[in-house]
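Summary: Need help interpreting a holo structure output

Steps to reproduce:
1. Submit the protein chain below together with the SMILES for NAP.
2. Request a joint structure prediction with the ligand placed.
3. Inspect the structure token block that comes back.

Expected: a single structure record containing both the chain and the bound molecule.
Actual: see attached output.

Input attached:
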Amino acid sequence: MKAYVLKKVGGPDVLKISSVASSSPGTNEVQVQIETIGLNYAEIQSRKGLYGWAPKRPYIPGMEAYGKIRAIGDGVTDLQVGTQVIVVGQFGCYTEEIVVPVNQILPAFKNFTPAENAAFAVQFMTAWVALFEICRIRATDRVLIQAAAGGVGTAAVQLAKALGCEVFGTASKDSKLDLISRLGVDHSINYHTDDFVAVIREKTGGEGVDVILEVVGGEVFRKSMEVLNPFGRLVVIGFASLNLNKLNPLSWWETWKDIPRVKIDAMATASQVVGASHLGYLLKDTKRMMRIWTDLSLFTLEHGLKPVVGHEFKFEEMAEAHKLMESRNSHGKIVVHI
Ligand SMILES: NC(=O)c1ccc[n+]([C@@H]2O[C@H](COP(=O)([O-])OP(=O)(O)OC[C@H]3O[C@@H](n4cnc5c(N)ncnc54)[C@H](OP(=O)(O)O)[C@@H]3O)[C@@H](O)[C@H]2O)c1
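--- attached output ---
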């Protein structure tokens, strides 16, 4: 079968198709024929050698996909061959076929297209965990979503708006602001051309926001802390702006400086909470993951939410898909069809 095997780190051109042997499912495993792959920013960072949770090379990247169960192993009682499913994991999805333990299989949404099914799990679960589990978001909260036009961003915007929150969203291009405004963002801010702190102060009559989803790091994180209200909650789920060049000591210093840090004494006087989250831990805690998945799925169906699929590529175009995500010109989710 065809697969992208990451043998060395580097630019998008290191992504080359190889032929690899397929394997049969063992006890409590299933084999899924992949139809559509969902891309995640962590795969860009893994390809560059900057993702701490990546497995040892060589390995097949890819954290999520949609496809059909082709075979089931011993002990699998509640899944059938032929069922359409979503696969989640830390790696392994840039391929035609994958064998995974049953806890990495989630039910597909019948009202979603294949692209939407491949686009949902990682980004909506990440946004849900950050906003609902960690920040305990309420309808009365003012919410700031950084990089709101991206995959996680468009998921977070939809979730917060469906709950009834007033939402501020940032992005680096005006075309992305149009998208997030259409998704319901009340105050769209171009954080490259405008000072988002000043805009938020102006729109809130000198106040700030109660909940912040932060994915960029560096100056964006530092300025986010300036607009966090007393009793506010900020959760860091990524550092998209960090770009460590291991051969350049100046870049070590810049990376160290831009990793989000907090001053507990300053937070204490305002009774603020700053947290962080990583979806990887959920794979080790099936009970918690399924509880979260159930809550998220019910909310999604109740409010008629769907992931924003911004770009679709063919399997042979994986390098192009990576280039687009890295360029900051993508919006919503990028998917790749087999
Ligand atoms: N903790 C978790 O479990 C988890 C899970 C999924 C994703 N994440 C994180 O969430 C963030 C979004 O992930 P995603 O997959 O949905 O990607 P994405 O948002 O579709 O793409 C990344 C976005 O980051 C913004 N960005 C800001 N500074 C950047 C820079 N210097 N270079 C490139 N992009 C920059 C860009 O938006 P603008 O151009 O509008 O600024 C870009 O569109 C990432 O930080 C990712 O690592 C975390």
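--- end attachment ---

Reviewer comment: The chain has ten helices and 15 strands. Residues 162 and 304 are 9 Å apart (CA to CA).
Status: needs-info
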